[in-house]
């Protein structure tokens, strides 16, 4: 992991392969590469969320998460390597408990909507779920450490909770509550 990029356009991938961190070349549609891409997309989506007005504590948490996702991607890029510490999963568990404790209990399903920052957190949540599915698929074919799978699972839960927190933050003057799903049945019943 000590190599740093000095040249971006290497042209070595023009044949449809890419290099892993251990120097091996694999097809660009390899399960490992696709999982790394999902993790990278998740990290990028958090970068977009970080461009929004956010409470300072949420911002600090998401910046830490971005670094941990980079570690997760690094771990995936070298088969058999460990880079994501189990403490990262514990940190997400603690954040999840902290933020969820201040929220009202959900009685209905909510839509991925509300403030822009909350909606962006929901987008991140769905990408985290896709990355988790990709990692589970990879783990069925190759050995993968448990911490990355656990991390993505907790992160998707945390992003759901943070979306609810951000809907209430009122940083943009539009904060309020979650946007609740109303089924056709509820509408017919006057709900």
Any overview of this molecule?
- The chain has 191 residues and is mostly helical.
- Strands 1-2 form a two-stranded antiparallel ribbon.
- The protein is built from 6 helices and 2 strands; from the N terminus they run E-E-H-H-H-H-H-H.
- The radius of gyration is 19 Å and the shape is elongated.
List the SSEs and their pairings.
Layout: E1 17-19, E2 25-27, H1 31-50, H2 56-77, H3 86-101, H4 116-141, H5 146-169, H6 184-188
Helix pairs in contact: 1-2, 1-4, 3-5, 4-5
Q: What is the string of SSEs from the N terminus onward?
A: EEHHHHHH
* Overall average residue pLDDT: 88
The biggest beta sheet reads: 2 strands, antiparallel
Q: Classify the helix fraction into a percent range.
A: 55-70%
Largest sheet, spatial ordering of strands:
1-2
Strand percentage:
under 5%
Give a summary of the structure in a few sentences.
This protein has 191 residues and is mainly α.
